[in-house]
Design brief:
This protein is an alpha/beta fold and 252 residues long. 37% of the residues lie in helices and 15% in strands.
């Protein structure tokens, strides 16, 4: 199986063929991963527009570590993290490590069709080395670290010196490290981990996220002293212009 745009029988030049065009994709990768399944879609182009801004922001500044979070559960942060990671990985000269730090509700491995195995918690608890938890994906230049089993103290683990040392090590092998973190309002993990990241992105789902929830998440992150880069909106509809403007202006 391959993640290429497509292969199979195509019409010959100057003529038409009754043969269908067969596009080969890997069904183990979640259907909502548009950067893999629908690379020419409008959504995929929107991810690429975001990538352009992200890479321009980090130009000439070496490897970068980005945390992706949300105010509450169910806002699409994990799916956004996967699509952003694939999008960055397809840019020339990049190599991306996507780290699942949401120990309570890990989704990264499942979205990318990566099988079960040890992960971040096993590494941070000194049970395994980095090579034992790094997993390659079906996407070129994209590796993942699964969450691993849920530890007793997720926030303390993510605020330890070990995570800082891990990020420093990953920056020697990858141009970008993207961490999917738990939502901000129910848990402190994102604010704790954000202190070690170069930037934090707040995912907001239009029609679901309430303004007070988003504002609270923003204040929590700002109080923690993280570099809040901005908001990333999901489920955007043309009729939501006022809401789009509000959330885009939330982080100035």
């Amino acid at each position: 199986m391959t993640g290429d745009e497509g292969s199979g029988t195509r019409p010959p030049k100057g003529g038409r063929s009754t043969e269908p065009v067969i596009v080969i994709t890997d069904s183990s990768i979640d259907d909502h991963v548009v950067m893999y399944h629908e690379p020419k879609s409008l959504q995929a182009e929107q991810y690429r527009a975001f990538r352009t801004n992200l890479l321009a922001m980090h130009q000439g500044r070496g490897s970068r570590a980005l945390a992706i979070t949300s105010a509450m559960k169910g806002e699409g942060k994990s799916l956004s993290a996967v699509n952003i990671a694939i999008c960055v990985a397809e840019a020339p000269g990049t190599r991306v490590c996507l780290v699942d730090t949401d120990f309570r509700a890990p989704r990264i491995a499942g979205l990318l069709g990566v099988g079960p195995g040890p992960g971040l918690s096993d590494l941070l608890l000194d049970e395994l080395g980095l090579n034992a938890v790094l997993a390659e994906t079906k996407i070129r230049d994209l590796a993942v670290i699964r969450a691993g089993r849920e530890p007793r103290n997720p926030s303390e683990l993510l605020g330890s010196d070990r995570i800082r040392d891990l990020l420093a090590t990953l920056k020697t092998d990858f141009t970008h490290i993207i961490c999917d973190t738990p939502p901000v309002n129910p848990y402190t993990d994102a604010a704790v981990l954000g202190a070690y990241m170069d930037g934090v992105l707040l995912v907001i789902r239009l029609g679901k996220t309430q303004r007070e929830q988003a504002e609270r998440a923003k204040h929590v992150l700002e109080r923690a002293g993280v570099n809040l880069l901005g908001t990333f909106l999901t489920d955007v509809m043309p009729s939501d212009k006022d809401e789009q403007d509000y959330y885009r202006d939330l982080v100035e």
